[in-house]
Amino acid sequence: MAKGFGEAQGDVPDHLGHRERLRERFRKGGADALPDYELLELVLFRTNARGNTKPIAKGLIARFGTFAEVLGAEPERLMEVEGVGAAVAQDLKLIQAASLRLARGEVMHRPLLASWKAIVDYCRAAMAFETREQFRILFLDKKNQLIADEVQQQGTVDHTPVYTREVIKRALELASTAIVLVHNHPSGDPTPSLAYIDMTKKIIQAGEKLGVLVHDHLIIGKKDHVSFRSLQLI
To answer: Residue 51: which residues within 8 A CB-CB, separation 6 or more?
Structure first.
């Protein structure tokens, strides 16, 4: 009996003990106590109750680079990594959606100028790791509180069509008196192009005629962002 019990104990896979050690480190030190791949391991425990999730987590980081980039990847690309099926991909996208909802809660219905860092953090979370360009508009009321956040256009890897008339029309529909323009650069380089500088000027001019102020235009890169206002382009 004792021998059989000992054999059963010895048959417990090493990775199960590793799971408990990871959980304990997270309990004591939070996410900062874990590198990206180990934090991913913890996430993967949800959909892989007893399997070894370390190879999957390391495979995801090797393919996409960081925890944030894994969450930002399209489900189809996630499933190209060995061990990642539809359930794992859906769980990762759920975590991304939850984190965006949390970040959005930090900025909605609050004065923009009092929470500018939160605005930038939210935009980075929402757009920095998208594989295609997005053009997003943050709509503000008379108190400079954020009342709506909408992706108006989605384009290719390096271009998004933006129509001045549609931008101002939507602001008027929402009774917004000020807007912040935001778009991402999937290349990672947030340097503004001449086309976007020209487009921003056209939106500013159209907005001035109808009482819609353009506060800023942000370009979001993977590691940094650029503000048109800080560059004195507005």
So the answer is: 15
Residue 27: what are its φ and ψ, rounded to 5°? -60, -40
Contact 218, 120 (CB under 8 A): yes
**Helix, coil or strand: residue 173:** helix
Write the DSSP symbol of residue 193.
P
Residue 161 CA: distances (Å) to CA of 168, 195, 199: 15, 11, 10
CB 125 within 8 A of CB 136: no
What CA–CA distance (Å, rounded) separates 108 from 114? 12
Residue 138 has pLDDT above 90, yes or no: yes
Q: Is the CB of residue 108 less than 8 Å from the CB of residue 122?
A: no
DSSP string, 96-160: HHHHHHHHHHTTBTSBGGGGHHHHHHHHHHHHTT-SS-EEEEEEE-TT-BEEEEEEEEE--SS--
Which among 91, 99, 29 is positioned nearest to 68, based on CA atoms? 99
CB 174 within 8 A of CB 148: yes
Neighbours of 78 (CB within 10 A): 21
pTM of the model as a whole: 0.70
Average pLDDT over residues 199-212: 94
* pLDDT tens-digit series, residues 106-133: 777 677 767 788 888 888 888 888 878 8
* 3-state SS class at 76: helix
CA separation for the pair 9, 2 (Å, rounded): 11
